Every structure is written in structure tokens, then in C-alpha cells.
Amino acid sequence: MLMYPQVSCVDVTGTLEPFGLANFLTGQRLYQPVTVSIDAAPVPAAGGFLHLLPTGRFDELPEQIDLMLVAGGPGCFDAAGDEDLLAWIRRLEPRCTRIGSVCTGATVLAASGVADGHQIATHWLEAIRLKRENPLVELKEDAIFVNSGKLWTSAGMLAGIDMALALIEQDHGRQLALEIARFMVLVLRREGGQSQFSPQMMADATEDPRIRRVQLHIWENPCGDLSVARLATISAMSERSLGRRFKQITNATLSRYIEDVRLSSARKLLETSEQSVQTVASNTGFGTAASMRRVFKRRLGTSPSSYKKSFGTVPARTPGKLTEADVVPVDLMGVVNGKSVW
Hints:
Layout: H1 9-26, E1 36-37, E2 43-44, E3 51-52, E4 56-57, E5 65-70, H2 76-79, H3 83-92, E6 96-101, H4 105-112, E7 119-120, H5 124-133, E8 138-139, E9 145-148, E10 151-154, H6 159-172, H7 174-183, H8 199-205, H9 209-220, H10 228-235, H11 239-250, H12 254-272, H13 277-283, H14 289-300, H15 304-311, H16 332-336
Parallel strand pairs: 1-4, 5-6, 6-10, 7-8
Antiparallel strand pairs: 2-3, 9-10
């Protein structure tokens, strides 16, 4: 695992943990996980709450490397501009059987050039910027992880664990990967992709203004007339052209996107309001609680009532109630443009 200043701890340790557990659960030395940096000095982690001590330096690595991964974190932008670091990645790539990245580590890989011509995954938010600024890589924006030849890349943070389990499954079979996932109290394969976390942000980033109008209309009117005929009028396109272009731009059908929006809106209301399940269903376009329940079961593996119980806000006592001034806004565009502070 390649590290640099302001790297995300989870990207490093979370992704390496399954490989260590493969050794632990089998009693065999199947893997030898190591962490490296240019000079082997302690690496300040994002957030400033600890330093990570690498196993060694790049020039201490063996001639043959089975897998080299680049971790992500807010330091990825500086790392992507570090010519010494990028030169090391280019020199090491031919010695690697497999190479890849975790989360925004894809930004560093892309800057080195070793990902040119490959399909890659990264955090959905970074995908917006990377797609705009690096046309030499093909972003799979909805993927949890992607295997493109010898290149393996994963989406945000904990998706590195999903990728690690897939790599272990490739090396030693499904049963071991399943046992590791069970030991970590995880599922071996997560359902759905990143779009369940990011549809509104993706709407803001869609380049085609006709498709963006349709997306924003859906977000603003989840209970309204979302028929293909109505959406075609809004886009100033024929129904057939709209369906084809929408799928091409968003990698989702209109019906799937509408369901994504309604599901996201329902989740937000269940998390933040005291509305009943039926009221939430009515206010997000599902119509009935039964219809919403079916979608929650199929997409999230739980019911709306259970979701509300797990993630809903506990009504605050009057003395502790937050005022508008207490609420801290989220600056997603600052993150997209690399101007945020971890």
C-alpha cells in the first residue's frame, strides 16, 4: 500500500485488513501486506490525529510485486502533482502483477499515466472532477470496484474492503473470501452501486443541459407527473431520444433514476423528520406505504420502519434543540474542486 501525507487511515488499514485476516483464519502466510512511502518517514494521516509508520521505502520493495495499491485521502491532489512519487509509480508498475487504488488514490494513479485507457472506479464525488479533467481514463461512476486487466480500483473508502475480498476470492476461492467477510461482519457482495449515495450531486454534474433539466425536475417533483411524455417535453426531445440519451449520459434508465430519487428522498425524510411511513410514501411519490416497502426491501434489504428506527433522528428535548445557526452546511462543491479541509 502506497502512502503519502494526508492519506486516509481507512483506505490504508481497512483495505489491508482482509489480507491479514486471510493469514489469521487459515494459519498460513498467504499474504505479506506492507506499507511504503518515498522515505519511510511517519506519514501524517488526514485529520491530524495520528501518523502512520510505513513498513519501508519504495526502493526496498522486492523485484516482483503481486499487488500495489495507492491509498486515497485529501492529500491525493498534492500527491498527484508530486513528480517523484509519480515517477516511482511508473517505475514500479511493470514489476507488479496487479496495480490499483482505493478511493481517491485513483487520482494519483491517473496522474501517473498507468491508468490511461483503463476503466476505473473512485469515490463518486471525485469522479465528477476526474471525469472532467482526465479524458484518458474511463470512469465507472456507479461501480463499487472495477477490475480492468491488471488494474483494480475501488470507490470511496470502505469500498476498498469490497475490492480486497474480490482479490482474495480471485486468489484463493469464494469460500475463504466468504469466511473473511463473515468474520468482519460484512456481506461478501454489496447490492447496488454508488448512485444510491449520489444521484442529486450527479444531476448537478451532468454535462448535457437537456438531461440535467430532466434530472432536476425529477428531484423537485417526485410526486408529480414523471411520465416519459412529460419529461420529453421538458427536455425538448422525442421520447425515444430522451430514453436513449438519458441512459447514455447517466448509465441508468429513466424509471431507475426516478426510483433512485424517490428512494433517496424517502430515506432523507425517514432520517430527519417525524413523518409517518405512509406520509413519507405520499410525499416522495411512492403513493402507498406498501409500494415504498417493496422498493426498500429490494434495494436496501430492510423495511422503511426498520430504516427509520436505525437512522431516524431521536426527537430532541427542547433545551437541546438545534437552531438554524447551529446547523453546519456541507460544501460538496468545495470537495469536488479540492478546496476542502479534512
